[in-house]
Specification:
single chain; mainly beta; disordered C terminus; 251 residues
Length: 251
C-alpha cells in the first residue's frame, strides 16, 4: 500500500461504502483509523470524512496516535479537487487520490462480499470472515490499478452503536508474492453515522486551498486522467461552481 493513501479518498468509493445513492439523504460522517504492517510501509494513519452527497466529500487526514494533522481534501461536484496542507508531489496529485481510492475500494469489496444487504441491515454485532487461496483482489481507478495477491484473508465485525451509527473493525492480510505467506497486514476500525446538517454555502471561502480540475487531458499528445491546477484560483465555492470550467475530457 502506498503512503499517499493517507491523504485523500475518492468520493465515489466513499458513497458506495456508505450505501448512499441520492442527494436527499442525510450527510454521512465517517472516521477510520488504519494500522499497516508490510515491507513497504508501517504505521498508523486515519481520516475523517463528511460526505454531503454523491459528488461532494470533505476529508481530513491525520497520522499517528496523536492524530497529527496531515492536510485535507475537498472534492467538489466530482469535478474539482481542493487541497490544503497535503504533501503531494507537484504534477502527481491524482496519485494520492488513486491510492486512497484503492484502499477504500478494498474495504468496499470486503463489506459487499460479507454484508450483501448493506449497512441498513446491520442491527447487531455481525462477524466478517472471508478468504481466498486461489483468486487475488483486483481494483481500479480512472488512472491506476492495484492487485492484492492471494492468499488473502479478511476478518472482523460490524456492529450497531448506541446512537444508531455503525462500528467496524476489520483485519485484512495478503501476500506480497503469489502463493506465499500472509506478510502484509492492514487493520481498519472506525465509525459511520448519518446526520441532518447544512451543506457548505456558496459563500464558503476557498482561496487558501490549492485548486484543481479533474479529467482526461491531452498534454503533449498523451491523454491521461489527472488533476490539473486551476491557473487563477477562485475566492469562493460559488465562484468555482459558476465558473463553467470545462475540462477536456476524452471518451
Amino acid at each position: 500500500m502506498n503512503k499517499n493513501m493517507k491523504l485523500v479518498v475518492s468520493a465515489l468509493a466513499f458513497v458506495l461504502l456508505s450505501g448512499r445513492v441520492c442527494n436527499s439523504e442525510p450527510v454521512v460522517l465517517m472516521k477510520v483509523d488504519v494500522v499497516t504492517s508490510s515491507a513497504e510501509v508501517s504505521g498508523m494513519f486515519g481520516m475523517e470524512f463528511v460526505s454531503y452527497d454523491a459528488t461532494n466529500t470533505y476529508v481530513r487526514a491525520y497520522e499517528g496516535p496523536a492524530r497529527t494533522d496531515k492536510g485535507s481534501l475537498w472534492l467538489i461536484d466530482g469535478q474539482y479537487l481542493l487541497l490544503k496542507g497535503v504533501n503531494a508531489p507537484k504534477g502527481h496529485e491524482i496519485d494520492a487520490l488513486d491510492s486512497a481510492s484503492i484502499m477504500f475500494q478494498l474495504l468496499i469489496h470486503i463489506f459487499a462480499e460479507a454484508l450483501p444487504q448493506g449497512p441498513s441491515a446491520i442491527q447487531k454485532k455481525t462477524s466478517i470472515s472471508l478468504s481466498s487461496n486461489r483468486k487475488p483482489i483486483r481494483l481500479k481507478t480512472n488512472s491506476g490499478e492495484c492487485e492484492y495477491r492471494h492468499p488473502w484473508r479478511a476478518k472482523g465485525y460490524v456492529d450497531r452503536s448506541k446512537d444508531g451509527g455503525l462500528l467496524f473493525d476489520i483485519e485484512f492480510k495478503c501476500s506480497s508474492a503469489k502463493g506465499k505467506t500472509l506478510d502484509q497486514c492492514m487493520k481498519a476500525s472506525g465509525t459511520r453515522e448519518a446526520k441532518d446538517m447544512a451543506r457548505p454555502p456558496d459563500s464558503e471561502v476557498i482561496e487558501s486551498r490549492s485548486q484543481f480540475e479533474l479529467g482526461r487531458f491531452n498534454e503533449g499528445g498523451v491523454i491521461d486522467y489527472k488533476a490539473r491546477p486551476i491557473e487563477k484560483p477562485f475566492k469562493t465555492l460559488g465562484e468555482l461552481r459558476r465558473s463553467n470550467i470545462q475540462p477536456k475530457i476524452k471518451p
